[in-house]
Amino acid sequence: MDDVTAEIVRQWLHKVEHDLLNIRNNLAAETIPTDTVCFHAQQAIEKLLKGLLVANGRNIAKTHDLVKLLSDVSDLVPELLPLEEQLEEISEYGVGVRYPDDFYEPTMYEANLAYGIAVKIQTIIVNKIQF
Length: 131
What we know:
Layout: H1 3-27, H2 34-55, H3 66-73, H4 84-91, H5 108-128
Helix pairs in contact: 1-2, 1-5, 2-3, 2-5
């Protein structure tokens, strides 16, 4: 990976850290906005998958669909394939929880699960990226 690409990948990972920090801060709050936690989990996973694509010189699809992004990186991280069903659910948090159209408030269980999956994916992907 050249220096320019490496810097772009570092920026993706930096934004992931901000999403995860936002989650940790919200989970430590007295009142926890589970929709915000789930949204940032979706965002973190999306950025991790896109950062991995950039690191490997691949094009990034303009999508928030985590299952689509998973299929784009499946040859690079086949160990993520068992998470497809969870990623399908977490994809909904990218848009669905942000607007009152189809009002849905995720449970604490869902928020913690989404966060845990984001952290798991972070660990796997960061270990795959070679700077």
